[in-house]
Design goal:
With 107 residues, the protein is an all-alpha fold. It has a domain of 74 residues: F1FO ATP Synthase. It contains 3 helices and no strands. The protein is flat.
Length: 107
């Protein structure tokens, strides 16, 4: 039950944003609705990239720290691959940012 209540607030905020966005996009009187979808696409691109990157980096760091805690002598062999993995995960987030900038530039 606690998990449902934790998910309710983000879902309610997302639903409110989706339901209120047509009124905002219709306020300028433009007949072209693709601009609104580009804005939503840009927001989703960076939002999902940041969410996935944050989860991936958190799991990678937790696993590396768990390995170092279990075997402190292996910290040199664990630390460098962890930094490389974190850099690769961050590069995917930067790709999402570039996609969001490209979509926002078309608005």
């Amino acid at each position: 039950m606690a998990r449902v209540s934790k998910l309710f607030v983000p879902f309610a905020a997302f639903a409110l944003a989706v339901l209120s966005s047509p009124a905002v996009f219709a306020a300028d009187g433009a007949a072209d609705s693709s601009r609104g979808w580009l804005g939503i696409g840009a927001a989703l691109a960076i939002g999902l990239a940041a969410l996935g990157g944050g989860l991936g980096q958190g799991r990678a760091a937790a696993a590396a720290l768990d390995g170092i805690a279990r075997n402190p002598q292996a910290s040199g062999k664990i630390f460098v691959p962890m930094i490389v993995a974190l850099a690769l995960i961050e590069s995917l987030v930067i790709y999402g940012l570039l996609i969001a900038f490209n979509l926002a530039g078309k608005l």
